[in-house]
Amino acid sequence: MRYSFIAELAAPGREVPVRACDPESNPVWLFASIGEYPVYDDVVYEAMIKDERRMNRYVEAVRRYAPGRTVLDIGTGKDAVWALAAARAGARHVWAVEVIPKSAQIARETIEEAGFADRITVIEGLSTEIELPEPVDVCVSEIIGTLGGSEGAGSVLRDARKRLVKPGGVFIPHRSVTTAVALDLGSANGGRPLGFPPFVFRYVEEVFASVGRPFDLRVVLEGLQDSPAVRDRSYLSDPVEVEPLEFNGDLDPEGIDAAELMFTREGNFSGLALAMRLWVAEGDEPIDSLVQPSSWTPVYAPLSVEGLPVRPGDRFEFDFTTTLSDDGVHPDYALTGELHRAGGPVVPLSWSSTHHGDGFRATPFYRSLFPGPGGP
Ligand SMILES: C[S@@+](CC[C@H](N)C(=O)[O-])C[C@H]1O[C@@H](n2cnc3c(N)ncnc32)[C@H](O)[C@@H]1O
Description:
Blueprint: E1 3-6, E2 16-19, E3 29-32, H1 42-49, H2 52-65, E4 70-74, H3 81-88, E5 93-98, H4 101-113, E6 120-124, E7 136-141, H5 153-163, E8 165-172, E9 175-183, H6 185-188, H7 201-211, E10 219-222, H8 228-234, E11 240-246, E12 255-262, E13 267-269, E14 271-279, E15 287-288, E16 299-302, E17 308-310, E18 315-324, E19 331-340, E20 347-353, H9 364-369
Parallel strand pairs: 4-5, 4-7, 5-6, 7-8
Antiparallel strand pairs: 1-2, 3-10, 9-11, 9-14, 12-18, 13-17, 14-15, 14-16, 18-19, 19-20
The structure holds S-adenosylmethionine (SAM).
Pfam families: PrmA
Protein name: SAM-dependent methyltransferase
Organism: Streptomyces rhizosphaericus
Protein backbone atom coordinates (compact mmCIF):
# COMPACT_ATOMS: atom_id res chain seq x y z
CA MET A 1 0.00 0.00 0.00
CA ARG A 2 1.45 3.38 -0.97
CA TYR A 3 0.39 6.78 0.27
CA SER A 4 1.63 10.18 -0.78
CA PHE A 5 0.52 13.67 0.16
CA ILE A 6 -1.11 16.41 -1.80
CA ALA A 7 -1.13 20.01 -0.69
CA GLU A 8 -4.43 21.29 0.65
CA LEU A 9 -4.72 24.70 -0.99
CA ALA A 10 -0.93 25.06 -0.74
CA ALA A 11 -1.13 25.56 3.05
CA PRO A 12 1.99 24.18 4.80
CA GLY A 13 1.16 21.51 7.36
CA ARG A 14 -2.33 20.87 5.94
CA GLU A 15 -1.37 18.26 3.36
CA VAL A 16 -3.94 15.58 2.56
CA PRO A 17 -2.73 11.95 2.47
CA VAL A 18 -3.77 10.22 -0.75
CA ARG A 19 -3.48 6.66 -2.02
CA ALA A 20 -0.98 6.55 -4.89
CA CYS A 21 -0.79 3.87 -7.55
CA ASP A 22 1.47 2.92 -10.43
CA PRO A 23 -0.38 2.58 -13.76
CA GLU A 24 2.37 0.19 -14.94
CA SER A 25 1.21 -2.48 -12.48
CA ASN A 26 -2.51 -1.52 -12.26
CA PRO A 27 -4.57 -1.82 -15.46
CA VAL A 28 -7.25 0.40 -13.90
CA TRP A 29 -6.39 3.64 -12.06
CA LEU A 30 -8.11 6.84 -11.05
CA PHE A 31 -8.17 10.36 -12.45
CA ALA A 32 -10.28 13.29 -11.20
CA SER A 33 -13.42 14.17 -13.18
CA ILE A 34 -12.24 17.68 -14.10
CA GLY A 35 -14.43 18.95 -16.95
CA GLU A 36 -16.99 20.42 -14.52
CA TYR A 37 -14.36 22.76 -12.97
CA PRO A 38 -12.39 25.63 -14.57
CA VAL A 39 -9.12 23.67 -14.52
CA TYR A 40 -8.53 23.09 -18.25
CA ASP A 41 -4.85 23.19 -19.24
CA ASP A 42 -2.93 22.46 -22.48
CA VAL A 43 -2.80 18.72 -21.71
CA VAL A 44 -6.58 18.52 -21.29
CA TYR A 45 -7.38 20.59 -24.42
CA GLU A 46 -4.88 18.49 -26.39
CA ALA A 47 -6.50 15.21 -25.30
CA MET A 48 -9.80 16.50 -26.72
CA ILE A 49 -8.22 17.62 -30.00
CA LYS A 50 -6.56 14.20 -30.39
CA ASP A 51 -9.92 12.42 -29.97
CA GLU A 52 -10.49 11.75 -33.68
CA ARG A 53 -13.98 10.31 -33.38
CA ARG A 54 -15.16 13.38 -31.42
CA MET A 55 -13.44 15.79 -33.84
CA ASN A 56 -14.79 14.08 -36.99
CA ARG A 57 -18.38 13.88 -35.73
CA TYR A 58 -18.42 17.54 -34.69
CA VAL A 59 -16.76 18.87 -37.85
CA GLU A 60 -19.19 16.84 -40.03
CA ALA A 61 -22.17 18.25 -38.08
CA VAL A 62 -20.84 21.83 -38.25
CA ARG A 63 -20.30 21.50 -42.04
CA ARG A 64 -23.88 20.24 -42.37
CA TYR A 65 -25.57 23.09 -40.44
CA ALA A 66 -23.28 26.16 -40.48
CA PRO A 67 -23.07 27.32 -44.15
CA GLY A 68 -24.80 30.69 -44.59
CA ARG A 69 -25.98 30.74 -40.95
CA THR A 70 -25.12 32.57 -37.75
CA VAL A 71 -23.48 30.35 -35.13
CA LEU A 72 -22.89 30.46 -31.36
CA ASP A 73 -19.99 28.32 -30.07
CA ILE A 74 -20.41 27.89 -26.30
CA GLY A 75 -17.11 27.02 -24.57
CA THR A 76 -14.87 27.52 -27.59
CA GLY A 77 -11.73 26.60 -25.60
CA LYS A 78 -8.26 27.85 -26.46
CA ASP A 79 -8.31 26.30 -29.95
CA ALA A 80 -11.74 27.61 -31.05
CA VAL A 81 -12.15 24.39 -33.02
CA TRP A 82 -15.90 24.54 -33.74
CA ALA A 83 -15.88 28.31 -34.34
CA LEU A 84 -13.12 27.93 -36.94
CA ALA A 85 -14.82 24.88 -38.51
CA ALA A 86 -18.06 26.91 -38.81
CA ALA A 87 -16.28 29.92 -40.36
CA ARG A 88 -14.39 27.66 -42.79
CA ALA A 89 -17.70 25.98 -43.73
CA GLY A 90 -19.13 29.40 -44.69
CA ALA A 91 -21.01 30.55 -41.55
CA ARG A 92 -22.21 34.17 -41.89
CA HIS A 93 -20.92 35.09 -38.42
CA VAL A 94 -19.76 33.15 -35.36
CA TRP A 95 -19.88 34.23 -31.71
CA ALA A 96 -17.38 32.16 -29.70
CA VAL A 97 -17.90 32.32 -25.92
CA GLU A 98 -15.33 31.13 -23.38
CA VAL A 99 -15.34 31.59 -19.60
CA ILE A 100 -11.64 30.93 -18.87
CA PRO A 101 -9.88 34.28 -19.59
CA LYS A 102 -6.56 32.76 -20.71
CA SER A 103 -8.33 30.32 -23.08
CA ALA A 104 -10.46 33.17 -24.51
CA GLN A 105 -7.31 35.24 -25.14
CA ILE A 106 -5.50 32.36 -26.90
CA ALA A 107 -8.66 31.65 -28.96
CA ARG A 108 -8.69 35.30 -30.09
CA GLU A 109 -5.03 35.06 -31.22
CA THR A 110 -5.62 31.71 -32.96
CA ILE A 111 -8.60 33.13 -34.86
CA GLU A 112 -6.61 36.22 -35.91
CA GLU A 113 -3.72 34.06 -37.15
CA ALA A 114 -6.17 31.91 -39.13
CA GLY A 115 -7.51 35.07 -40.80
CA PHE A 116 -11.09 34.84 -39.45
CA ALA A 117 -11.13 37.80 -37.03
CA ASP A 118 -13.76 39.55 -39.18
CA ARG A 119 -16.18 36.60 -39.03
CA ILE A 120 -15.62 35.25 -35.50
CA THR A 121 -16.18 37.40 -32.42
CA VAL A 122 -14.72 35.98 -29.20
CA ILE A 123 -16.67 36.89 -26.06
CA GLU A 124 -15.01 36.24 -22.70
CA GLY A 125 -17.53 35.14 -20.08
CA LEU A 126 -20.24 32.65 -19.23
CA SER A 127 -22.82 32.01 -21.95
CA THR A 128 -25.50 32.34 -19.25
CA GLU A 129 -24.39 35.92 -18.54
CA ILE A 130 -23.81 37.32 -22.05
CA GLU A 131 -26.14 39.02 -24.54
CA LEU A 132 -25.88 38.70 -28.34
CA PRO A 133 -26.88 41.40 -30.84
CA GLU A 134 -29.41 38.93 -32.32
CA PRO A 135 -30.39 35.29 -31.73
CA VAL A 136 -28.39 32.79 -33.84
CA ASP A 137 -29.45 29.97 -36.20
CA VAL A 138 -27.09 27.30 -34.82
CA CYS A 139 -25.59 26.61 -31.38
CA VAL A 140 -22.57 24.30 -31.17
CA SER A 141 -20.97 23.26 -27.87
CA GLU A 142 -19.00 20.47 -26.33
CA ILE A 143 -19.73 20.83 -22.65
CA ILE A 144 -20.68 17.16 -22.30
CA GLY A 145 -19.25 15.65 -19.13
CA THR A 146 -17.98 12.28 -18.00
CA LEU A 147 -21.62 11.84 -16.94
CA GLY A 148 -23.60 13.34 -19.85
CA GLY A 149 -24.86 16.39 -17.95
CA SER A 150 -22.07 16.85 -15.37
CA GLU A 151 -20.52 19.94 -17.06
CA GLY A 152 -23.90 21.69 -17.00
CA ALA A 153 -25.03 21.07 -20.61
CA GLY A 154 -28.68 20.73 -19.51
CA SER A 155 -29.04 24.13 -17.85
CA VAL A 156 -26.54 26.02 -20.06
CA LEU A 157 -28.19 24.91 -23.32
CA ARG A 158 -31.70 25.43 -21.92
CA ASP A 159 -30.67 29.03 -21.19
CA ALA A 160 -29.18 29.37 -24.71
CA ARG A 161 -32.44 28.08 -26.21
CA LYS A 162 -34.46 30.71 -24.28
CA ARG A 163 -32.24 33.75 -24.94
CA LEU A 164 -29.56 33.24 -27.56
CA VAL A 165 -30.90 30.92 -30.29
CA LYS A 166 -33.78 31.55 -32.73
CA PRO A 167 -36.94 29.44 -32.26
CA GLY A 168 -36.34 26.28 -34.32
CA GLY A 169 -32.56 26.84 -34.30
CA VAL A 170 -30.32 23.76 -34.42
CA PHE A 171 -28.28 22.47 -31.48
CA ILE A 172 -25.08 20.46 -31.96
CA PRO A 173 -24.88 18.02 -30.17
CA HIS A 174 -28.33 16.52 -30.67
CA ARG A 175 -28.71 14.48 -27.47
CA SER A 176 -26.79 12.71 -24.69
CA VAL A 177 -27.49 10.11 -22.02
CA THR A 178 -25.58 8.81 -19.02
CA THR A 179 -24.96 5.05 -19.09
CA ALA A 180 -24.46 2.64 -16.18
CA VAL A 181 -22.90 -0.83 -16.07
CA ALA A 182 -22.20 -3.10 -13.07
CA LEU A 183 -18.52 -3.57 -12.23
CA ASP A 184 -16.19 -6.09 -10.63
CA LEU A 185 -13.11 -3.91 -10.16
CA GLY A 186 -11.21 -6.26 -7.88
CA SER A 187 -10.58 -8.70 -10.70
CA ALA A 188 -9.12 -6.00 -12.99
CA ASN A 189 -6.43 -4.99 -10.50
CA GLY A 190 -5.80 -8.32 -8.81
CA GLY A 191 -7.56 -7.13 -5.64
CA ARG A 192 -5.34 -4.04 -5.18
CA PRO A 193 -7.30 -0.91 -4.11
CA LEU A 194 -7.65 1.98 -6.54
CA GLY A 195 -5.39 5.04 -6.39
CA PHE A 196 -4.22 8.12 -8.29
CA PRO A 197 -0.87 8.06 -10.16
CA PRO A 198 1.30 10.96 -8.89
CA PHE A 199 0.86 12.98 -12.10
CA VAL A 200 -2.88 13.21 -11.28
CA PHE A 201 -2.32 14.87 -7.87
CA ARG A 202 -2.12 18.37 -9.32
CA TYR A 203 -5.57 17.99 -10.93
CA VAL A 204 -7.01 16.81 -7.60
CA GLU A 205 -5.43 19.86 -5.95
CA GLU A 206 -6.83 22.18 -8.61
CA VAL A 207 -10.35 20.78 -8.20
CA PHE A 208 -10.05 21.21 -4.40
CA ALA A 209 -8.75 24.77 -4.93
CA SER A 210 -11.60 25.67 -7.31
CA VAL A 211 -14.14 24.54 -4.67
CA GLY A 212 -12.12 26.04 -1.79
CA ARG A 213 -11.53 22.88 0.27
CA PRO A 214 -10.99 19.12 0.00
CA PHE A 215 -14.15 17.09 -0.63
CA ASP A 216 -15.12 13.68 -2.03
CA LEU A 217 -14.53 14.62 -5.64
CA ARG A 218 -15.92 12.58 -8.52
CA VAL A 219 -13.32 10.10 -9.84
CA VAL A 220 -13.00 8.42 -13.25
CA LEU A 221 -11.61 5.02 -14.19
CA GLU A 222 -8.71 5.04 -16.64
CA GLY A 223 -7.83 1.79 -18.39
CA LEU A 224 -11.30 0.29 -18.93
CA GLN A 225 -11.96 1.74 -22.39
CA ASP A 226 -8.59 0.89 -23.86
CA SER A 227 -8.57 -2.82 -23.16
CA PRO A 228 -11.37 -5.21 -24.19
CA ALA A 229 -9.75 -7.86 -21.93
CA VAL A 230 -9.94 -5.59 -18.86
CA ARG A 231 -13.53 -4.60 -19.75
CA ASP A 232 -14.54 -8.25 -20.15
CA ARG A 233 -13.16 -9.02 -16.67
CA SER A 234 -14.78 -5.92 -15.14
CA TYR A 235 -18.25 -5.42 -16.68
CA LEU A 236 -20.83 -7.71 -15.05
CA SER A 237 -23.97 -6.57 -16.90
CA ASP A 238 -25.23 -4.94 -20.04
CA PRO A 239 -25.47 -1.13 -19.80
CA VAL A 240 -28.63 0.90 -19.14
CA GLU A 241 -29.34 4.57 -19.96
CA VAL A 242 -30.34 7.35 -17.52
CA GLU A 243 -30.25 11.21 -17.56
CA PRO A 244 -31.51 11.73 -21.14
CA LEU A 245 -30.80 15.27 -22.41
CA GLU A 246 -32.61 16.24 -25.63
CA PHE A 247 -30.81 19.36 -26.85
CA ASN A 248 -33.16 19.74 -29.84
CA GLY A 249 -36.27 18.70 -27.88
CA ASP A 250 -37.72 18.95 -24.38
CA LEU A 251 -34.63 19.68 -22.31
CA ASP A 252 -34.91 19.07 -18.58
CA PRO A 253 -31.61 19.17 -16.65
CA GLU A 254 -33.19 17.58 -13.53
CA GLY A 255 -35.04 14.31 -13.04
CA ILE A 256 -35.29 10.83 -11.54
CA ASP A 257 -34.73 7.80 -13.79
CA ALA A 258 -35.60 4.26 -12.69
CA ALA A 259 -33.33 1.55 -14.12
CA GLU A 260 -32.49 -2.13 -13.70
CA LEU A 261 -29.16 -3.86 -14.38
CA MET A 262 -29.27 -7.62 -15.03
CA PHE A 263 -26.07 -9.46 -14.17
CA THR A 264 -24.85 -11.52 -17.11
CA ARG A 265 -21.68 -12.89 -15.45
CA GLU A 266 -20.59 -14.25 -12.09
CA GLY A 267 -18.34 -11.89 -10.12
CA ASN A 268 -17.86 -9.60 -7.16
CA PHE A 269 -20.10 -6.51 -7.56
CA SER A 270 -18.18 -3.44 -6.31
CA GLY A 271 -20.00 -0.56 -7.97
CA LEU A 272 -21.00 1.02 -11.27
CA ALA A 273 -19.19 2.61 -14.17
CA LEU A 274 -21.20 5.66 -15.23
CA ALA A 275 -20.38 6.96 -18.67
CA MET A 276 -22.04 8.78 -21.55
CA ARG A 277 -23.42 8.27 -25.05
CA LEU A 278 -23.45 11.31 -27.31
CA TRP A 279 -25.36 11.77 -30.56
CA VAL A 280 -23.53 14.74 -32.11
CA ALA A 281 -26.06 15.13 -34.95
CA GLU A 282 -29.48 13.60 -35.46
CA GLY A 283 -29.16 10.18 -37.11
CA ASP A 284 -25.49 9.71 -36.03
CA GLU A 285 -24.20 6.58 -34.31
CA PRO A 286 -23.53 7.65 -30.70
CA ILE A 287 -20.06 8.12 -29.26
CA ASP A 288 -20.01 5.62 -26.36
CA SER A 289 -17.48 6.26 -23.59
CA LEU A 290 -18.12 2.89 -21.90
CA VAL A 291 -16.56 0.94 -24.75
CA GLN A 292 -14.71 3.37 -27.03
CA PRO A 293 -11.36 4.93 -26.12
CA SER A 294 -12.11 8.65 -25.97
CA SER A 295 -11.45 11.91 -24.15
CA TRP A 296 -14.41 11.03 -21.87
CA THR A 297 -13.73 8.40 -19.17
CA PRO A 298 -16.27 6.46 -17.05
CA VAL A 299 -17.00 7.74 -13.53
CA TYR A 300 -16.70 5.22 -10.69
CA ALA A 301 -19.70 4.96 -8.37
CA PRO A 302 -18.38 2.72 -5.53
CA LEU A 303 -21.14 0.72 -3.80
CA SER A 304 -19.23 -1.91 -1.80
CA VAL A 305 -15.53 -1.83 -0.86
CA GLU A 306 -15.36 -5.61 -0.32
CA GLY A 307 -17.67 -6.43 -3.25
CA LEU A 308 -20.82 -8.58 -3.23
CA PRO A 309 -20.88 -11.98 -4.98
CA VAL A 310 -23.38 -12.03 -7.87
CA ARG A 311 -24.47 -14.55 -10.49
CA PRO A 312 -26.25 -14.36 -13.86
CA GLY A 313 -29.93 -13.56 -13.30
CA ASP A 314 -29.32 -11.42 -10.17
CA ARG A 315 -30.31 -7.78 -10.64
CA PHE A 316 -29.66 -4.30 -9.32
CA GLU A 317 -32.68 -1.98 -9.38
CA PHE A 318 -31.98 1.71 -8.83
CA ASP A 319 -33.24 5.29 -9.05
CA PHE A 320 -30.80 7.80 -10.52
CA THR A 321 -31.51 11.38 -9.41
CA THR A 322 -30.12 14.52 -11.05
CA THR A 323 -30.62 17.81 -9.16
CA LEU A 324 -28.99 21.14 -9.99
CA SER A 325 -26.50 22.24 -7.33
CA ASP A 326 -26.82 25.72 -5.79
CA ASP A 327 -24.77 27.23 -8.67
CA GLY A 328 -27.83 26.50 -10.86
CA VAL A 329 -25.66 24.87 -13.55
CA HIS A 330 -23.77 21.79 -12.36
CA PRO A 331 -25.80 18.76 -11.27
CA ASP A 332 -25.50 16.82 -8.04
CA TYR A 333 -26.13 13.09 -8.56
CA ALA A 334 -27.60 10.45 -6.24
CA LEU A 335 -28.32 6.79 -6.74
CA THR A 336 -30.27 4.50 -4.42
CA GLY A 337 -30.93 0.90 -5.22
CA GLU A 338 -31.48 -2.69 -4.19
CA LEU A 339 -29.44 -5.73 -5.08
CA HIS A 340 -31.66 -8.78 -5.61
CA ARG A 341 -29.82 -12.12 -5.52
CA ALA A 342 -31.29 -15.58 -5.98
CA GLY A 343 -32.16 -16.98 -2.57
CA GLY A 344 -30.57 -14.09 -0.62
CA PRO A 345 -31.88 -11.04 1.24
CA VAL A 346 -32.27 -7.75 -0.63
CA VAL A 347 -29.19 -5.52 -0.12
CA PRO A 348 -29.76 -1.72 -0.15
CA LEU A 349 -26.92 0.22 -1.81
CA SER A 350 -26.42 3.92 -2.48
CA TRP A 351 -24.00 6.48 -3.91
CA SER A 352 -24.05 10.23 -4.20
CA SER A 353 -21.75 12.73 -5.84
CA THR A 354 -22.19 16.46 -5.45
CA HIS A 355 -20.49 19.10 -7.60
CA HIS A 356 -19.09 21.02 -4.61
CA GLY A 357 -20.70 19.48 -1.51
CA ASP A 358 -18.85 19.56 1.79
CA GLY A 359 -18.48 15.84 2.63
CA PHE A 360 -14.86 14.69 2.90
CA ARG A 361 -13.85 11.07 3.66
CA ALA A 362 -17.57 10.38 4.14
CA THR A 363 -17.61 6.78 2.83
CA PRO A 364 -15.26 3.77 3.13
CA PHE A 365 -14.12 4.27 -0.49
CA TYR A 366 -13.03 7.89 0.14
CA ARG A 367 -11.49 6.99 3.54
CA SER A 368 -9.37 4.45 1.65
CA LEU A 369 -8.46 6.98 -1.07
CA PHE A 370 -7.73 9.82 1.40
CA PRO A 371 -6.70 7.99 4.61
CA GLY A 372 -6.60 10.00 7.84
CA PRO A 373 -3.42 10.24 9.92
CA GLY A 374 -4.11 6.85 11.49
CA GLY A 375 -4.89 5.08 8.17
CA PRO A 376 -8.28 4.33 6.60
C1 LIG B 1 -14.84 20.35 -22.92
S1 LIG B 1 -14.12 21.92 -23.27
C2 LIG B 1 -14.39 22.05 -25.02
C3 LIG B 1 -13.44 22.99 -25.73
C4 LIG B 1 -13.64 23.02 -27.26
N1 LIG B 1 -14.93 23.53 -27.62
C5 LIG B 1 -13.49 21.62 -27.81
O1 LIG B 1 -14.52 20.98 -28.01
O2 LIG B 1 -12.35 21.17 -27.99
C6 LIG B 1 -15.37 22.96 -22.60
C7 LIG B 1 -14.99 24.44 -22.61
O3 LIG B 1 -16.18 25.17 -22.34
C8 LIG B 1 -15.92 26.20 -21.40
N2 LIG B 1 -17.26 26.46 -20.81
C9 LIG B 1 -18.02 25.59 -20.13
N3 LIG B 1 -19.23 26.12 -19.86
C10 LIG B 1 -19.24 27.36 -20.40
C11 LIG B 1 -20.21 28.41 -20.46
N4 LIG B 1 -21.43 28.26 -19.92
N5 LIG B 1 -19.86 29.57 -21.07
C12 LIG B 1 -18.63 29.73 -21.61
N6 LIG B 1 -17.66 28.77 -21.58
C13 LIG B 1 -17.97 27.59 -20.99
C14 LIG B 1 -14.85 25.62 -20.52
O4 LIG B 1 -14.11 26.62 -19.87
C15 LIG B 1 -14.00 24.85 -21.55
O5 LIG B 1 -13.01 25.68 -22.13
